[in-house]
Amino acid sequence: MNPILIRASVGYLLRHPWQLALALLGISIGVAVMVSVDLANQSSRKAFIASMNAVNGDATHQIVAGPGGIDEALYVHLRVAEGIRSIAPIVAGNVRISNRTMQLLGVDVFAERAFRSFSSPASSPPGNSEGSGQSSEDAVRRFLAGDGSVLMSARTATELDLAANEPFILEANGKSYPARLAGSPQGGQEGQLDNLLVADIAAAQHWLGLTGKLSRIDVKISEGDNKLASRLRSLLPDGTELLSAAGRTQTTADMSDAFMTNLFAMSLLALLVGIFLIYNSVSFAVLQRRELIGVLRALGVTRRQVFGLILTEAAIIGLIGAAVGVFAGVWLGEKLVVLVSRTVSDHYFVANVTRLSVDSFSVAKGFLAGLLATLVAAAIPAAEASAYQPRLTLSRSTLEARAGGLLPKLAWGGLGLMLVAGLTLTVSGNHLTAGLVALFMLIFGFALCIPLVVHFLSVSFEPLAGRWGGTAARLAVSSVSKSLSRTGVAVVALSIAVSATIGVSIMVESFRLSVSDWLNTTLQSDVYVGVPRGSLDRQLLADLVAVPGIIEHSTSRRSWLEDQGGRTQIIAIQMAPGSYRGTKIRDGRPEDVWQLFDNGQGVLISDAYAYRSQLGRGDSLQLNTSDGMIEFTVAAVYQSYDSNNGAIMMSRGTYDRYFDDPVIDSIGLYLEPGTDVDDIMTKLREVGRGRQSLIMNSNARIRDISLQIFDRTFVITNVLYWLAVGVAVIGIFGAMLALQLERARDYGILRAIGMTPAQTGMLVSAQTGCIGILSGIAAIPLGLMMAWVLIEVINRRAFGWEIDFTVPPAVLLWALLLAVGAALLAGIYPAWSAAHTRPALAMRDE
Amino acid sequence: MRIKIKKSVYLIVFTLIITSLSACEGDQQNTGAAPEALRGGSRLSELLGGDSSAGFARAIEPREFVFPRDHGPHTRYRNEWWYVTGNLDGPERERFGFELTFFRFSLAPDTPSEFDSAWQTNQVYIAHFAITDVTGKSFHVAQRYARGGAGLAGAQASPFKVWLDDWSIAESAPRPGSTHWNLHAEDAGFSLDLDLVALKRPVLNGRDGLSQKSAEAGNASYYYSLTRLQSDGSVRLGEKNYAVTGLSWLDREWGSSALSSGQRGWDWFALQLSDGSELMFYNIRRNDNSADSHSAGTWIDPEGVTSYLRPEDVSIVVTDSWDSPRGGTYPAGWIIDIPGRDLSLAVQPVLSDQELLTTVRYWEGAVDVDGSRGEQDFTGRGYVELTGYASE
Amino acid sequence: MGGQQILNGTTHEVRVSNLTRSYQEGKQQHHVLRGLNIDVARGESIALRGRSGSGKSTLLNLISGIDVPDAGSVEVAGQDITGMSERDRTLFRRRHIGFVYQAFNLVPTLSVGDNVRLVLELNDFDRIAAQRRTRELLGAVHLADRIDSYPDVLSGGEQQRVAIARALAHKPSVLLADEPTGNLDDRTAEDVLQLLDVMVRQAGGTMIIATHSATVASRADRILDLHNGLLSS
Questions:
Q1: How many Cβ atoms from other residues are within 10 Å of residue A125's Cβ?
Q2: How far is B24 from chain A (nearest CA, A)?
Q3: Domain boundaries, chain B
Q4: Could you give the C-alpha distances from B32 to A126, B15, B27, B40, B358, in angstroms and in order?
């Protein structure tokens, strides 16, 4: 590239710092949002996998069983009778210390050596170092002697304000036990062993109420050793499975895939809006220099050189913008990771993210996407510039006419793209990524139609505006269509951002309404009592339901079945007469369904499970029970927003028949009509005092908590679409500023023929307001379409939810206000600037 | 190994767990704990809870030995072992030696009861398994440990059994009046299965089975042996199986004491002679390498009649030495004279390198004996244990 | 001090007293007007003559209130506009001044009719009256058929005729024309001048035309030569 040409470019860009800054900002924010979401996703996932790997140590496989756990005799048998040594018993569960939930890992230190680095004597050969280990030795004695000594990471200990050897109270299974901090587990990267308590297996069994049981058996199988795996499998009883440890971690991590994919797609929206911004900036820079380019061409600069020049400019902007975006993305990622990991922890797995892990692949991806987006966006105006004839000055109206002629072509292209999107949706089955790609095609396709729509709207409103607000109003309206080559792209960007808010808001509102309706239906009991992650004591249960004022009760148990394909939630319910109407049957007559359910002739599956497994009424499914694989008939599909991995509901009788797990986690209590709920809860607490600490909630409270969690889930979604709107506002601002620059002379004339500064400013505001209204109107159909796709396609494919499509009018009104507000906000400075036009100066140059 | 093991049990338990603790102090500190524990007896007694044997039963008075009861564990005492060694012959003149030892260890005098769990225990077991392939000139060792709970390791009197994982010695066919056991041990690449039948009644060592280890009262153990066990079974080395036959020796000892501070290690001899008699002698070496006055032994004649041997009854001259490639020089040949019985025995290792690279390094190996009583020549085989020679 | 006072009657429409205006151009102070005094009587037609940069445009801008003098005063229709606020000057200009430019300066995004109508609406004509007057004026400049056309499809002469219609729409006290024929060929220029004659002079309007053309100047009642920021006779 000719250095003089580049100098001319740089000179131009520097003379228009606003345009340059806005283009940079657009691409930077787009890249930043994309990078930040990607990093936040990856960090949450990595934190989980890293801590799982740290906890699993060298275990390559794990033996797991159903809800009842593994009989410890199996482990002893494998070791003593079978002589299998590369196994270690684990008793795991959740406990609480000072209201903080932690994972308890009960281990046998003698078996640990082969598995976890923190128990390996090899790491500490008898050697030469000095120093007293008195406190450690004492700790060791207690660890086996049984005074409740536990290990926790130094940081966790600090956070809990515990010193070495300090006694504390540990709450497990609703009961309190004395425990003592013996030290910290060694190894594990920063944070990976946080929230982890290591104790002797005997203590863990006792605290968790798992006497005689193991949660799993860790297995180490050297690579290529197929004999041990098959030998183990042949030795395992029914209902027990040997699974790959990495596979289990992966499967759990994969549960959040749909959520993360959706989030990433949302983040691309900001980049998409950013692309329009770049296109806007570059094409404006080209339009402004159309004469200069004409002169250059006359001087013998080739088309290719002009194209290269514009693209070089764009590349420089793209490089800087993407670089800034990457840094901003890391910064933003640090904020977002808190939201992402909280949501992931709410719904999928405990992601204990202590800091953002900056993955070079994510960064490179974001950087390249930013650069590429810039070049693609700049390619069209660059091609246009290279097509300018030497010395031919194009009049504004010619340009506009040309743009006008382009509108139908764009719209046809857009319609075609939308058609392809529709086709993609119909043929892609339940593939999530395909659904998202179709959604983006739909958005892009509609975006191409927007200029025509806006043109049409603006032309049809013009006379109306003229009649209603005079020539000035008409001027405001007509200027939108008369300057589509400048404002069109800004309008599109705003439309997309606003339509995203419509689509997402409708989706969230519809979802929330469905969930809220479901909660109303499903929460039939008046009071729910449970033990946090534990088992309700049977005698206590009997005493609780004997409290006067309680007429009925139901019990429930949630447990997990695990196999190669992942984990399935089982809900075992002992129904009270009032419980039945709490479950909405999607297919089948409730009377028939409940009869099958109660007789143990069928199980119910949730919407999400049904979608995922493509099963329905009358189908059958297989579960790995204590008696081995057993076939169950699906009695019906029921409505549930409980778990997006789906659940299988069965009667307690059925559960007890097939699973060796007497645990009840919670009970629902039905009160005599007119009984005071608070009063009963006080009495219930009295019954439980000193026996088990109970979680007790009225149904109203559970409803509130559930909706709070629901709302929390969508916080990050809101943040993302606000960022997209932010980019769009910048777009409008840039477009208006550009327009302002071009129109300076016109404003001069208007001022000369007698428009006051206020009137001129109003005129510009009216123009931006029009852009806002027109964008908002154009955004509504796209928004509705997006909402539909989000609800019927994306959410279904990602999570299996059945959501009732509801359009709250307020959302549409709000979107219009948002569009107008955003446009007006963006127009404030241009309006001010127009109002302060000095007509004498504005008209002087020509 | 018998005294040293007390330390090594603690050492293993502590290195196992201490390394898992940083006790909020960081790496340097905790790696110091184990060697410190290893170094001196006084330090060891601190480890054991200040007054070393507080709360434990102690070997002070001679006791009445009752079998099979006393084959089983004595958990009120802090440590105990079942120590089997033997020499075996294969069908084609192959020659093997073996050692299978179970150490039992109480971490506290009482069984804890805080937790409702079969895993809760104060008992720790460690086992060593070694095979000397004399023909192939190779030596194989394995070490294991486990808690004495949940059925992973343990010992019981009736029917007799001591085990750790799948290593075990267990009564096979309880017949009144006979001792008939099965021994099984296996590791990657080598294994041993033996049928053991006692040819003699248990021999009480020391004074009626009370073996005094130093002047201090209670610094002693209860000690009996089965000195002649007919052994038949098989040895597997790699892919090869050998049907074997030979003689084994069981040492049983329990007590609560530790090594005295002035004692460095010991040389233990268990020799089975071709005339049907056996000799056991241990020479406790003081820090200056002189023989401790508490060294002692037992002479068992072919009929099983025993005599107590005091240090002044026995003279031992080292005739050869072996430098361990791991460091340290071991004696590797002895002339043992018992003038009172007109007995002279030349003892020679069947293989120089029978050093066990377990947590604590020691030498325990099969030996050949050439001897004479007066004019009569005879041969013999046995096992020798040498501790306190390895340079740490 | 100062220039010649040509007319000193009370019926003046425009009175410029001791008008001074200078611009900062780079580091140099460029004095455009240096204490200029002019009186224009009602109905009088004045030609301002001078070379490029002699201050003709500046003077017209000052008279119309588009620009503000450094010193001196401008009185139009009996009102001193120099002390007025920006807004008041704009309101005054809207009411009393009509302006025709060399570059026509039509609003490109408004049709011919709307260009005229906008001025009328700014002067509070109701819609019907504005419509009628627009037609009337466009008829008068022979462009009734182009009422819905946009300026950029019109020829220069046509555009200037629309500009004249727009300038006169609200019956201003003074019409200011800055080189109105500067961008036109002779023939078209003649037509435009003819139109101004008919619509302003014959209607008794006051007019100040800045021009360097002798032909144009010859039509005026009085010619003022501007030189170095002062009048020279």
A1: 12
A2: 6
A3: 1-52, 53-258, 262-392
A4: 8, 10, 9, 14, 19
Q: Please report, for the domain that includes residue C86, its CATH number.
A: 3.40.50.300
Determine, yes or no, domain membership for A746.
yes
Please, are residues B19 and B30 in contact by the beta-carbon 8 Å criterion?
A: yes
A244 min Cα distance to partner chain B (Å): 24
Contact residues, chain A, for B34 at CB < 8 Å: 124, 126, 133
pLDDT tens string C180-202: 888 888 888 888 888 888 888 88
Residue A776 lies in a domain: yes
pLDDT of residue A140: 52
Bridge partners, B278 (sequence order): B272, B300
- Name the burial class of residue A3, with classes exposed (0-12), middle (13-18) and buried (19+) by CB atoms within 10 angstroms of its CB: exposed
Highest mean pLDDT among A329-343, B105-119, B317-331, C45-59: B317-331
**Residue in the structure block whose two tokens are 């627009």:** C134
- In this complex, do B122 and A144 lie within 8 Å of one another by their Cβ atoms? yes
Question: What's the pLDDT at B112?
Answer: 81
Contacts of A177 (CB under 8 A, 6+ apart): A148, A169, A170, A171, A206, A207
Are A537 and A493 part of one and the same domain? Answer: no
Nearest beta carbon to residue A396 from set C90, C94, C108: C108
Q: Is the domain of A729 the same as that of A625?
A: no
Answer yes or no: do C93 and A754 touch at CB < 8 A: yes
Spatial contact of B130 and B102, defined as CB atoms under 8 Å apart: no
Q: Look up the CATH number of domain B53-258.
A: 2.40.370.10
Is the CB of B303 inside 8 Å of chain A's CB atoms?
A: no
Does one domain contain both A205 and A80?
A: yes
Q: Report angle CA C173, C176, C178 to the nearest 5 degrees.
A: 175
Report the top-level CATH class of B262-392.
Answer: mainly beta
| Percent helix, strand and coil across chain C, each to the nearest 5 | 35, 30, 35
Structure token digits, residue A461: 């409103």
CA angle A756–A758–A759, rounded 5-degree value: 65
Q: What pLDDT score was predicted for residue B38?
A: 31
Residue of A85, A129, A138, A207 to mutate, testing the B interface (most B Cβ within 10 Å of its Cβ): A129
Q: Are residues A75 and A49 in the same domain?
A: no
Q: Which pTM value belongs to this model?
A: 0.77
Beta pairing class for B210-212 and B220-237: antiparallel
Q: From the centroid of its chain, how far is CA B116?
A: 34
Question: Please, what is the angle between helix A360-386 and helix A303-347, to 10°?
Answer: 150
Q: What is the dihedral of CA A265, A270, A273, A275, to 10 degrees?
A: -90
Residues of chain A below pLDDT 50:
118-139, 845-846
Give the up-direction half-sphere exposure of residue A375: CA atoms within 13 A in the CB hemisphere: 11
How far, in Å, CA of A808 to CA of A810, rounded?
A: 5
Residue A155 φ then ψ, to 5°: -70, -45
Region of residue A99 (phi > 0: left; psi between -120 and 50: alpha; otherwise: beta): left
Residue A661 lies in a domain: yes
CA distances from A447 to A406, A451, A493 (A): 14, 8, 8
Contact A172, A93 (CB under 8 A): yes
For A621, the domain range is 532-693
Which pLDDT score, from 0 to 100, does residue B370 have?
96
Mean local confidence (pLDDT), C62-84: 87
- Is the Cβ pair A752, C64 closer than 8 Å? yes
Rounded (10°) angle between helices A245-254 and A17-56 = 140
Per-residue pLDDT reduced to its tens digit, B250-291: 999 999 876 667 788 889 999 999 999 999 999 998 888 888
- Write out pLDDT tens, residues B32-46: 222 222 323 333 333
Q: What is residue A132's three-state secondary structure?
A: coil
One domain for residues A483 and A540: no
Tally the domains of chain A.
Answer: 4
